[in-house]
Amino acid sequence: MSVIPYIIPRTFSNMRGNRLSHLMTALTIAFVVLIFGLSTLIYFNLHRLAENYSREIRIVTYIDPALPPEDIEGLKAKVLKLRGVANIRHVTSQEGYQRLVQQFQDEKDILAGLGEDFLPSTLEIEVTGTMYNMGRIRPLVSELTSLPGITDVYYGKEWVERLRQAADFTRLITFAIGGLFLLTTIFVVSNTIKLTIYLRRNELETMRLVGATNFFIRGPFVLEGMLQGLVGSGLAMLALFALFEFLKTQVNFPGFIRFFSPIFLPIPVVTGIIAGSIILCATVSAFSMRQFLRV
Amino acid sequence: MDSPLIELKHVYKSYEQDLTVLEDINLRIGKGEFVFINGPSGAGKTTLLKVILCIERSTKGEVWVDGINLKRLSNSKIPYLRRRMGMVFQDFKLIENLTVFENVALSMEVCGIKKSVIEQRVDQVLKSLGLEIKKRIYPRRLSGGEQQRVAVARAVVNDPLVLLADEPTGNLDAGRAADIMSLFNEISARGTTVIFATHNQELIRSTAKRVIILDQGRIVN
Ligand SMILES: Nc1ncnc2c1ncn2[C@@H]1O[C@H](COP(=O)(O)OP(=O)(O)OP(=O)(O)O)[C@@H](O)[C@H]1O
Ligand SMILES: [Mg+2]
User: Fold this and answer.
1) CB-CB: which of A6, A203, A295 is closest to B109?
2) pTM of the full predicted structure?
3) CATH: 3.30.565.10, 3.30.70.790, 3.40.50.300, 3.30.70.2750. Which one for B1-84+160-221?
4) Do B93 and A209 touch (CB under 8 A)?
5) pLDDT tens digit sequence for A189-211
6) Rounded Cα gap, residues B180 and B191, in angstroms
7) Which of A38-52, A245-259, A261-275, B150-164 is least confident?
8) Chain A residues in contact with B55 (beta carbon < 8 A)
9) CB–CB of B106 and A206 under 8 A?
10) Which protein residues have their CB within 5 A of the ion that is ligand 2?
11) Cβ partners under 8 Å of residue A156, min gap 6
12) Which helix (H) or strand (E) is B161 found in, with range?
């Protein structure tokens, strides 16, 4: 027979005996998890935005007109091998000219007098679209520039850099808030445990005298920590979802991301945050028990 | 008495450096024996029982319980030793926010005994101590004597190998005290070793049992 059936009701009676302190702890945990979740949500959506945007990024390289046409295949092969290159398309002078013709249908005069081959032929390069590759763009550009046969490289530099910085910044903020979350949890959970132990010191002593093991005595406190983690982070996730739904109807996104609809944190991330909170609170409980409860 | 259940060899105990509470205690108590420990207040009776239950560790000397040298017993093994001993504490040590039933049941719960078994056994013990109608009541609403009987119930509920009773009849009238005595006699007859600490001279005078007299931490008889 095991003592577990006796540990669970004991957990609840411990918590009933110290209601206010447990409520405050759960609310504090909820508050920090909410801020952490909000920051994660912002980072997550910025990441998605950047991913969407970087799918649009094209690097255009101009091919040296002096390059013999038979060498172009070799150049394409070299470019394809570079890291971060998803796809390339060779746009010949003629194709480029046709595009212009289409673009200036009504003002054909502009093109008058220009030969079909006045444009250099180009390679249009699609990059693999993840945020983390943003940082790869610059090295990729310099590698492209150094390839023989390529004269010039163009890309949406400013935007790439800006998105990258914003994402880096929110990631940093998320980590900082994560650290704050950790410290706050350690502080409030261990304080609640300290208080419960103080309020229950006679009972804990007596349990020890009648032969209770450490497991029996500590079990309820660890369970209590897990419950606080669950309730606190669960509340936080609910509040975050409500806040998200509310903001979605309130905020007008600027034009260039008009077509971007922000989404809530995916289920695995929500589950991860809740599970992480439970594990964190249980660990803090177990450690504070060791610290405050002498055998 | 070839191998005593409890044996103390040259045991010393001091709480503070220069104050010796137990001094050179040598004692052998056999299985099923019923022993009184008598002596004036402050003689060290409670301390002696605490040393046997490993609540206090002796400062010097050896304490053996059922073949176990307590000096060698690690902290994590202590609970298992205590489960085989029941102690009636002088100050009862009842838990305020548990009912009479729950207080007594606790001794069995820590061992992980099944709920249905606990219920039956606790009811039986409470009944034998005349406490069955108080079973759902909290200790602060009991008289001193009732609290003492709850403490006795908790100590005997596990059918311990050793029963350590620290002044277990101190708050009882003659009738109740006699009930407790006959309960202890019964337990002892079933093979439990009983160590009964009291400063009550009358109780000692009327018994034919072995009496150990402590005075200022020494055995004087
Ligand atoms: N925890 C403690 N710390 C310091 N001294 C203690 C402690 N417990 C007991 N003592 C001292 O040890 C001596 C013996 O105490 P003990 O409680 O063993 O006596 P006793 O024989 O049980 O007395 P009584 O009949 O009054 O219960 C006393 O002088 C007491 O002051
Ligand atoms: Mg005493």
Assistant:
1) A6
2) 0.74
3) 3.40.50.300
4) yes
5) 888 888 888 888 888 899 999 99
6) 17
7) A245-259
8) 209
9) yes
10) B 46, 90
11) A57, A58
12) none
